[in-house]
């Protein structure tokens, strides 16, 4: 079933869009099935769970951390994480840099923007993000690479609202690139779109979609 679901989703993706299979709360067996079907990029939101999976699953898996990251947990994922999606403060970015320096690595990061109308979601406001980038302190961080932006739309059936939120992130991406990261070739990822809204996200420029239940079925929490 997982293999069929994957095949279906991948057949809908334009060339420049990559699929992050959200495997959080799903067992290794489910990931192995997706892996056998050719999927290599998986997303997790709990440090302990991701580390346990990293240690027990094939080493060519590309692990993306998509949850809310606590500063005291960064050191556990730095050695192997391919991309951190949820950088929502300068403090967190600086701590990733510090831990990456200790590990002798450069870690790829996305800045998370709060675009939804729900208070429960994390992220910079557009103005907070502008302020941080304009301040320029981040330019001194040599062990992180800002590769793009991430956002989550409001969990609603209102497609118009979802589209508006994704459009706001897409145009902010263009602003950030033009003003602060024009020379950064690595700044090219726009992580938006989940199982219920990835078509809308792709339509306005998403390069990474994070799909879980549509591949693995509903989660057992």
Automatic annotation (TrEMBL):
<feature type="modified residue" description="N6-(pyridoxal phosphate)lysine">
    <location>
        <position position="24"/>
    </location>
</feature>
<dbReference type="GO" id="GO:0030170">
    <property type="term" value="F:pyridoxal phosphate binding"/>
</dbReference>
<dbReference type="InterPro" id="IPR001608">
    <property type="entry name" value="Ala_racemase_N"/>
</dbReference>
<dbReference type="Pfam" id="PF01168">
    <property type="entry name" value="Ala_racemase_N"/>
</dbReference>
<comment type="function">
    <text>Pyridoxal 5'-phosphate (PLP)-binding protein, which is involved in PLP homeostasis.</text>
</comment>
<protein>
    <recommendedName>
        <fullName>Pyridoxal phosphate homeostasis protein</fullName>
    </recommendedName>
</protein>
<comment type="similarity">
    <text>Belongs to the pyridoxal phosphate-binding protein YggS/PROSC family.</text>
</comment>
<keyword id="KW-0663">Pyridoxal phosphate</keyword>
<dbReference type="InterPro" id="IPR011078">
    <property type="entry name" value="PyrdxlP_homeostasis"/>
</dbReference>
<dbReference type="InterPro" id="IPR029066">
    <property type="entry name" value="PLP-binding_barrel"/>
</dbReference>
<feature type="domain" description="Alanine racemase N-terminal">
    <location>
        <begin position="2"/>
        <end position="219"/>
    </location>
</feature>
């Amino acid at each position: 079933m997982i293999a069929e679901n994957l095949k279906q989703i991948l057949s809908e993706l334009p060339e420049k869009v990559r699929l992050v299979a959200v495997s959080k709360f799903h067992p290794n067996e489910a990931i192995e099935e997706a892996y056998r079907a050719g999927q290599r990029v998986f997303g997790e939101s709990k440090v302990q769970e991701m580390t346990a999976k990293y240690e027990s699953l094939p080493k060519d898996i590309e692990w993306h951390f998509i949850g809310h990251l606590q500063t005291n947990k960064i050191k556990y994922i730095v050695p192997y994480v391919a991309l951190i999606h949820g950088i929502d403060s300068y403090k967190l970015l600086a701590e990733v840099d510090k831990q990456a320096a200790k590990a002798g690595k450069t870690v790829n990061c996305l800045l998370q923007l709060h675009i939804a109308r729900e208070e429960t979601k994390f992220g910079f406001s557009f103005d907070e993000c502008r302020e941080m980038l304009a301040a320029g302190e981040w330019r001194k961080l040599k062990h992180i690479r800002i590769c793009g932006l991430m956002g989550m739309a409001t969990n609603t059936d209102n497609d118009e609202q979802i589209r508006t939120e994704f459009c706001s992130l897409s145009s902010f991406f263009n602003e950030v690139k033009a003003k602060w990261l024009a020379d950064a070739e690595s700044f090219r990822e726009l992580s938006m779109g989940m199982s219920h809204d990835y078509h809308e996200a792709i339509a306005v420029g998403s390069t990474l979609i994070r799909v879980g239940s549509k591949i693995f079925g509903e989660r057992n929490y």
